[in-house]
Amino acid sequence: MAASSTARSFLQVAATEEVVSPLRFVQIEGLVILKIIKHCKEFSPALVTGQLLGLDVGSVLEVTNCFPFPIREEDEEIEADGANYQLEMMRCLREVNVDNNTVGWYQSTILGSYQTVELIETFMNYQENIRRCVCIIYDPSRSNQGVLALKALKLSDSFMELYRTNNFTGEKLREKNLSWVDIFEEIPIKVSNSALISAFMTELESNTPVTQCDYDRLQFSSNPYMERNMEFLIECMDDLSMEQQKAFPILLQELVTSTSPATGMVSEKKVVYLISMLLDSLFSLKDHLGPSKSENMARKAAGEEPLPEEDPTNPIFKPIPEPSRLESFLITNQIANYCNQINGYIVYSRSYPFFWIA
Amino acid sequence: MPAGDRTVLQFSTQSTANLSAKVHPLVIFNICDCYVRRPDQAERVIGTLLGSVLPDGTVDIRNSYAVPHTESAEQVALDIEYHHNMLVSQQKVNPKEVIVGWYSTGLGVTGGSALIHDFYSREVPNPVHLTVDTGFRNGEGTIKAYVSVNLALGDRQLAAQFQEIPLDLRMVEAERLGFDILKTTSVDKLPTDLEGMEVTMQRLLALIDDIYKYVDGVVEGHVAADNSIGRFISDTVAALPKLSPPAFDKLVNDSLQDQLLLLYLSSITRTQLGLAENLNTAAQNL
């Protein structure tokens, strides 16, 4: 009796919910990184995916092994095949004492354009079965620049709740104080290796003072890369403006219906006028950004910007892709920023060697 | 006494004369990982090597997986069904990778290995046997590759000899990148691109320093002049495009301005994003 005051009974322990400590970082083994690099590189530019295996320990998610998925053809019966393949691989790996626990998946991407609705759906699928899962994104095109572009992502909890209720109206988003940056959380990655492997690698290292990745980094011909980035950016801009056009009439209609009882007709027109002015300026800003490619698009869009008709039966909803598009936009942006930084740095330091030799 | 018919021990070396193997570091990682995870009673790990044979005859070893086996003093048993299952699964992902041999950990080649090699030679005409010494018996981790050569005495097969073939550790650029990370036991965070740039610049400066010192040494007479090195250096310096300083400055400035423009553009886009976001969510407030 007295002892049970300090020791909880089994029933009590089973009843209390475990406190889920927040995920602080992901610990990946070097083996997994090498496998991911190899797989993504072999099949680039096609996008590939694979499964991550490991352990979920406290606030650390350990990833100890992975295996690739075969490329899926567009065929219905491959579904069962895919599941079979997975089971078979897990079973085989279990026999050689590899951790049999799925902790997420990895995928390759091109220039960071991985934020699609499919990603979110896959996340939700995984989340139903596993308490904690991450998605590792690897970018082989950035690795050609000399940078190891590996990222671990997780859906933020607030976004997940919102997605479950499938409710994306503006009010809900404002309530939760959720903007597009809050959809994905990036988790820091740590790399660990067993001592045996590090011993081998230290020995096998070649003695050249300069390695190939140094040559890659010092390359100046990043123009094609930047061009592709800008193209992506412009495409995303176009998509965004289309989305906004879709959403705009509904917003406007809501605005109109909300102001009419409070104030007179005059101010209502003013508000409508103001908003259309703002939209106009947004479109013209887009004009400056992509003169060569999207000039026609912008002209067309600005030209056919009619005032919306009243349609009270239209349910107010924000199309689900919109937040994702914004995010993908942001990321492409970030990449453009990134390579600008790199380039700026390169250009500054480029002058030095030349001055030395000359 | 004159020998009647003396049969000569024949080493058939033609086929193996130019055979060599290339190993990707992933394979070594796999092997080490399997070794660390082996079941307690097993002393060594055995597995299959996957890869391809290049047109010039070298064997390119790209992937591997472990196969459970039991070993005792007299016999060795390999789980063949597992081996086939894994092979089928792996080939679903990468049909170009075929069996090229097998590996085992441990330094030398034992009697049991000959049996296993026999088994593998039924799958592949000339399998390569890779040994990875995880025990570091020679004070270093030795990785050796062997092929089996048949020793024939006249018409009779006497034995099979394991002959060593040259092995090359080959690394792809992307793997090179992560190499520094892979060397130590733990890394706290992945290096960002700026840090990598820094490391590269330091290495480059170190190289240039070395060259300077060498040239100074030769000029002052400390170091014996080596003509080939001198020619090499002069070739390198001559490879720099001949630009007058103003032209060079203009070039650099132009590209710098282009990049600044891009930077500005992307900042504008970000600002517009923020604007659009606020518009969309705050519009209901009105």
From TrEMBL, chain A:
Residues 26-159 form the MPN domain. Residues 294-318 are annotated as: Disordered. GO terms for biological process: formation of cytoplasmic translation initiation complex. Pfam families: eIF3h_C, JAB. Keywords: Cytoplasm, Initiation factor, Protein biosynthesis. GO terms for molecular function: metallopeptidase activity; translation initiation factor activity. InterPro entries: eIF3h, eIF3h_C, JAMM/MPN+_dom, JAMM_MPN+_peptidase_M67A, MPN. SMART domains: JAB_MPN (SM00232). It is found in: Cytoplasm. GO terms for cellular component: eukaryotic 43S preinitiation complex; eukaryotic 48S preinitiation complex; eukaryotic translation initiation factor 3 complex. Signal peptide: none annotated. Residues 294-303 have a biased composition (Basic and acidic residues). The keyword Membrane does not apply. Component of the eukaryotic translation initiation factor 3 (eIF-3) complex. Belongs to the eIF-3 subunit H family. Component of the eukaryotic translation initiation factor 3 (eIF-3) complex, which is involved in protein synthesis of a specialized repertoire of mRNAs and, together with other initiation factors, stimulates binding of mRNA and methionyl-tRNAi to the 40S ribosome. The eIF-3 complex specifically targets and initiates translation of a subset of mRNAs involved in cell proliferation. This is Eukaryotic translation initiation factor 3 subunit H. It comes from Hibiscus syriacus (Rose of Sharon).
UniProtKB/TrEMBL annotation, chain B:
Gene3D superfamilies: Cytidine Deaminase, domain 2 (3.40.140.10). One of its GO terms (biological process) is formation of cytoplasmic translation initiation complex. Residues 21-152 form the MPN domain. PROSITE patterns: MPN. Pfam families: JAB, MitMem_reg. The keyword Plastid does not apply. Keywords: Cytoplasm, Initiation factor, Protein biosynthesis. One of its GO terms (cellular component) is eukaryotic translation initiation factor 3 complex, eIF3m. GO terms for molecular function: metallopeptidase activity; translation initiation factor activity; translation initiation factor binding. It is found in: Cytoplasm. Belongs to the eIF-3 subunit F family. Component of the eukaryotic translation initiation factor 3 (eIF-3) complex. Component of the eukaryotic translation initiation factor 3 (eIF-3) complex, which is involved in protein synthesis of a specialized repertoire of mRNAs and, together with other initiation factors, stimulates binding of mRNA and methionyl-tRNAi to the 40S ribosome. The eIF-3 complex specifically targets and initiates translation of a subset of mRNAs involved in cell proliferation. This is Eukaryotic translation initiation factor 3 subunit F. It comes from Hibiscus syriacus.
